[in-house]
Amino acid sequence: MGRKFLLFCGVLASLLYIAMNLFIPPLYEGYNWVTQTVSELSAVDAPTRPLWFVLGIIYTLLVAAFGWGIFKSAGEQRSLRIVGILMFLSGVLGLTWSPMHQREVLAADGGTFTDTWHLVMSAVTVLLMFLSIGFGAAAFGKGFRFYSIATIIVFIVFGVLTFVEAPNVDKNGPTPYIGLWERINIAAFMVWMLVFSAILLRHEKKPPLSVSNKEMASEKKIFSKQDPIIKETVL
């Protein structure tokens, strides 16, 4: 049950982050989710920063718990163990995020080390997402593999579109669709994590062979190799 709860944390983390992106932006007067980044909701002096900060900690802890659950459920499956480690690292490192400053401050050269570290953590988080999807794709069947590849393609396409507009954030310049492109990537990963969690939970529900069942299966193999008369007598 403990392992199942840890795996269910993946579902909770996904739903929480989706909810944060749906219900927090309206609390920021003047904020435009299409033209502004998600990070601006937690920027220094942003009115939504206190709420985002608390929920963000809960989200990262859920991701770390999910990663630990994957690792514990992986058994001898190497790709799953790697995904578990990557998810756990993503959750733990998520606690070190620092806030960016608002656009007006950045444009006036008011940025500090927190802005630099914010960019570093953005790159690290995206890399961990890529690797998680890649190793996760190898853990299950062809259908999930194709779905994971499609998710990676979405990441690449909309990641490039986000990167093209990103320099204008520091300049307080126009970023007409940066929030939309970024949120498409976020949604792609959150849905992937939901699907991944559901598959893991479904596999977790399948009861493993007990010792007696294993012994019976072994005996049947031995009997099947013996003479039919001996097999009939034993059975």
Shape: globular
Give the low-pLDDT segments: 208-235
Task: Let me know the average pLDDT.
Answer: 87
Strand content: under 5%
Radius of gyration: 23 Å
Subunit organisation of the chains: single chain
User: How many helix segments?
Assistant: 10
Helix content: over 70%
Order of helices and strands: HHHHHHHHHH
Largest sheet: none
Strand segment tally = 0
Secondary-structure-based class equals: mainly alpha
Distance between the termini: 38 Å
Write the SSE topology.
Layout: H1 2-23, H2 49-73, H3 78-94, H4 103-107, H5 113-137, H6 142-165, H7 167-170, H8 178-205, H9 211-225, H10 228-234
Would you summarize the structure shown here?
The chain is built from ten helices and no strands. The chain has 235 residues and is mainly α. The radius of gyration is 23 Å and the shape is globular.
Report on the structure:
The model is unreliable at 208-235 (pLDDT under 50). This protein is 73% helix and 0% strand. It is built from ten helices and no strands. The chain has 235 residues and is mainly alpha-helical. The two termini are 38 Å apart. The chain is globular.
Main traits of this protein?
10 helices; mainly alpha; 235 residues
